[in-house]
Write a structure and sequence with these properties.
- The structure is a single chain.
- By secondary structure, the chain is an alpha/beta fold.
- The protein folds into two domains: 5-75 and 342-445, Aspartate Aminotransferase, domain 1 (Alpha-Beta Complex); 94-324, 3-Layer(aba) Sandwich (Aspartate Aminotransferase, domain 2).
- The protein contains 13 helices and 15 strands.
- Helix 3 (78-90) packs antiparallel against helix 11 and helix 11 packs across helix 13.
- The termini are far apart.
């Protein structure tokens, strides 16, 4: 089902930003909510369609954030909305393992079929969030191997629950003050070509070399249950590693009997132009993790893995009250239908156009030190001119200027200097052109 033409509405700013109604709500928010729940864009949404959001003051913005990677099929996709309503009329909850239902089974079947990067027979289990998939993947790997240790990477983000937070790399705001962390976790370097002036071979050699050194100085390989990696780092700055690095990790896991866990919570569900980034990168996981855009905003996560590993967990060893909620399952079916109906082709074309536009912006601005990504999962890195020193202040100014003119953006990176694009894949050509024009004006205004 195609998106309604209402999504094609252009930016329309009718009040100051934020407007009076949003300011009033922001004041109420500050009084009622914990201070930790600060607002990146204090424009309170009234409605959203496709790639645009309209706030309570009547201002319409183009949304490059997509619920932080949750709305790859767009806001209020008609088929998703219809699926949610239809299922809610029938029943909203039972707990699948108590009183089961067909949409859960069918969704796992479809996910297993989609997970072509995993070799051999596959099985799946559903959860609520990306963090839950990480927590449970570690549990599964530990049972399957009889080991405890976990390897993760610099720059990683895997969530905010205990194990997920421990695996996450950025200290502020995600880890500071929240210890002690989960034990037996070891952090290795991630292969980032930017650190080696674009030399992928050097980046790979360094990262894999350091991992092998750690096997002598930090951990015993026979004690490691799982290696958890993002095939493209999300919060870490949209870092696309060399494929040789990922293949080297696969070989390391094979050599030492370690479960290879690939976290596609942000890079999956069409974000890179294929259902899984692993398809393009040639990565072959043992366990593949999904959440975010899998159900277009309804909480849902999934682990898809080799049946020989998934079936090592004893009865009721994984699960919970809400995982695989029937409303979320039906939303996910509508999401997969959208991808099968041509959205992936649209995503690929959007990726090509964003790549070309970002290359031009980088060439014209000496404060942009890198343009990178895979498909429509794209980023710009802001550094102080002539250096690689992060320039988060410049990006903050760019983001603020763009907000005032109708474009909502979000940043990432350990240094807070990466502009990341998680725009709904239904963005029209006209909206893309308008977005780039707003971004270009923001860059010019903040030089």
């Amino acid at each position: 089902m195609e998106q309604a033409t209402a999504q094609q509405a252009s930016v329309n700013i009718v009040t100051e930003v934020p407007g009076p109604k949003s300011r009033e709500l922001a004041a109420r928010s500050a009084a009622a909510l914990a201070d930790a729940l600060s607002l990146v864009h204090p424009v309170f949404v009234e409605s959203a369609q496709g790639a645009t959001v309209t706030d309570v003051d009547g201002n319409t913005f183009i949304d490059w954030i997509g619920g932080v990677g949750v709305l790859n099929v767009g806001h209020s996709h008609p088929a998703v909305v219809e699926a949610i309503i239809e299922q809610a009329r029938r029943f909203t909850h039972t707990d699948y393992t108590i009183v089961p239902y067909e949409p859960y089974v069918r969704l796992c079947e479809r996910l297993n079929a989609s997970a072509t990067p995993i070799e051999g027979p596959k099985k799946a289990a559903l959860f609520n969030t990306g963090a839950e998939t990480v927590e449970n993947a570690v549990k599964i790997a530990r049972v399957a191997t009889g080991r405890q240790g976990v390897i993760c990477f610099s720059g990683a983000f895997h969530g905010r629950s205990l194990m997920a937070m421990t695996l996450t790399s950025k200290v502020h705001p995600y880890r500071a003050g929240f210890g002690p962390y989960a034990p037996e976790v070891y952090r290795a370097p991630y292969a980032n070509p930017f650190d080696f002036d674009g030399d992928e071979q050097a980046a790979t050699a360094y990262a894999l070399g350091e991992l092998k050194k750690m096997a002598k100085t930090h951990f015993a390989t026979e004690s490691i249950a799982a290696l958890v990696v993002e095939p493209i780092q999300g919060e870490g700055g949209f870092i696309v590693p060399p494929t040789a690095f990922l293949h080297g990790l696969r070989a390391f896991c094979d050599e030492h009997g370690i479960v290879f866990v690939v976290d596609e919570v942000q890079s999956g569900m069409g974000r890179t132009g294929t259902i899984w980034a692993s398809e393009q990168l040639g990565v072959k996981p043992d366990l593949l993790l999904s959440a975010k855009s899998i159900a277009a905003g309804i909480p849902l996560g999934a682990i898809i893995g080799k049946a020989s590993i998934m079936d090592r967990v004893p009865d009721s060893g994984i699960g919970g009250t809400y995982p695989g909620n029937p409303v979320a399952c039906q939303a996910a079916h509508a999401v997969l239908d959208a991808f099968e109906g041509g959205l992936l082709d649209q995503a690929k074309e959007l990726g090509r156009k964003l790549e070309a536009a970002f290359a031009e912006l980088k060439d014209a601005d000496d404060g942009i030190s890198d343009s990178r990504g895979l498909g429509p999962m794209r980023a710009l890195e802001f550094s102080k001119p002539g250096t690689k020193d992060p320039d988060p202040a410049r990006l903050d100014a760019v983001q603020a200027h763009a907000q005032q003119h109708g474009l909502l953006m979000h940043k990432a990176g350990v240094g807070g200097n990466i502009l990341r694009v998680l725009v709904p894949l239904v963005l029209t050509d006209a909206q893309l052109d308008e977005s780039i024009a707003i971004l270009r004006a923001a860059l010019e205004a903040t030089r």
